[in-house]
Automatic annotation (TrEMBL):
Belongs to the peroxidase family. Cytochrome c peroxidase subfamily. It is found in: Mitochondrion intermembrane space; Mitochondrion matrix. It is an enzyme of class 1 (oxidoreductase). It comes from Sanghuangporus baumii. CDD domains: ascorbate_peroxidase (cd00691). One of its GO terms (cellular component) is mitochondrial matrix. GO terms for biological process: cellular response to oxidative stress; hydrogen peroxide catabolic process; response to reactive oxygen species. It catalyses: 2 Fe(II)-[cytochrome c] + H2O2 + 2 H(+) = 2 Fe(III)-[cytochrome c] + 2 H2O. Its main location: mitochondrion. One of its GO terms (molecular function) is heme binding. This is Peroxidase. Residues 172-377 form the Plant heme peroxidase family profile domain. It comes from the Eukaryota. The keyword Heme applies.
Length: 377
């Protein structure tokens, strides 16, 4: 039995048994009010033979999904069905073109860009912490169980919000609530990943292909602790974490290049300091410094980390340092240190892949990712 059929049958029985007919008529009248975005969708192409029946059937199916979702989502036993209903409903909206346009998402991007700078936060920008939010909300994916990833935005819930690797990300989530209030139609998963794309591009990085279609899940969808990297570990740990997501050694190193941005905080990760001298500009400096500076173990009361011998102001994590020690990893570190264009190209593809982990193909609004404009373009 299909997901739609599984939801439709009990939903139909319960709805007619418990809901007044007037309420049912209201729930069926969803097409005139379903779209409330900032721009209108282009008209649908002329229907092919027999397509009208399918279109009206799909819209009716979406209405039934709404009824089923209402009936099921209020009980613990119905949470799984509710998640399936949301996914099926998103797929129907994609098929019937009842989705926001690229221009709608460009407006969200521009709004995020407008709030990036803040002289009272870290080095004057929320950009690095927004990149971290996008990465941590996506990097929980497990390709074997097909759980985790960016689809459900489960960091909104405990205990995932309290996982050690997510310490401090309440700052990023809080900043983006202002954007969510202005554009309530966007899902948290789309908002968080789009914020990461915006931050990379606005801080001088490459264009990141991105597409919307994620749905918001429930606390039951939250992932267990331990799926994100432990910075105190070595190369075997890195491979276990990233291979589980479906990445190879080259992609592991490419993603590590994001450490050109931001800094560590003792009250969050326990580590302290920036990786580069320009922590709000996206460059290949992480690789240059890792390869060419002399790194020594820092003598302090915190966890093991390295500092540059010359100034003592920069730091590297143990998981960073192994990239220059492991033979397979090191060859990519050298390539990216010597060629920033190569790094930008590989990072763009790999970060885009990361942000799509865990999202069913039929939920995507567009078959090919978009490239959104920078705020000043």
């Amino acid at each position: 039995m299909s997901v739609l059929a599984a939801i439709r049958a009990p939903a139909r029985r319960n709805a007619f048994a418990t809901a007044p007919r007037a309420a049912m008529r209201s729930s069926m009248r969803m097409r005139p009010t379903i779209r409330k975005y900032s721009t209108e969708s282009p008209p649908n192409p002329p229907p092919k033979s027999g397509s009208n029946a399918w279109l009206y059937g799909s819209i009716s199916g979406a209405a039934l999904i709404s009824v089923g979702y209402y009936l099921y989502s209020t009980s613990d036993a119905g949470k799984e069905a509710a998640s399936a209903a949301k996914s099926a409903g998103q797929a129907v909206k994609v098929k019937t073109n009842l989705v926001p346009t690229k221009e709608d998402y460009q407006k969200v991007y521009n709004e995020i860009a407008s709030i990036l700078e803040d002289n009272d936060y870290d080095d004057g920008s929320y950009g690095p912490v927004l990149v971290r939010l996008a990465w941590h909300s996506s990097g929980t994916y497990d390709k074997d169980t097909k759980t985790g990833g960016s689809n459900y935005a489960t960091m909104r819930f405990e205990p995932e919000a309290l996982h050690g690797a997510n310490a401090g990300l309440q700052v990023a989530r809080g900043v983006l609530e202002k954007v969510k209030e202005k554009f309530p139609w966007i899902s948290y998963g789309d908002l968080w990943t789009l914020a990461g794309v915006c931050a990379i591009q606005e801080m001088g990085g490459p264009k990141i292909p991105w597409r919307p279609g994620r749905i918001d899940g429930f606390a039951k969808d939250a992932t267990p602790d331990g799926r994100l990297p432990d910075a105190s570990q070595g190369s075997d740990h890195l491979r276990n974490i990233f291979y589980r997501m479906g990445f190879n050694d080259q992609e592991i190193v490419a993603l590590a290049g994001a450490h050109a941005l931001g800094r560590c905080h003792p009250d969050r990760s326990g580590f302290e300091g920036p990786w580069t001298f320009s922590p709000i500009t996206f460059t290949n400096d992480f690789f240059n410094l890792l390869l060419n500076e002399k790194w020594v173990w820092r003598k302090w009361s915190g966890p093991k980390q390295l500092q540059d011998k010359k100034t003592g102001t920069l730091m590297m994590l143990p998981t960073d340092y192994v990239l220059a020690q492991d033979k397979s990893f090191k060859k990519y570190v050298k390539q990216y240190a010597e060629d920033q264009d190569l790094f930008f190209n590989d990072f763009s593809k790999t970060f885009s892949k990361l942000l799509e982990l865990g999202v069913p193909e039929n939920q995507w609004v567009t078959p090919e990712p978009w490239v959104l404009k920078n705020a000043d373009e």
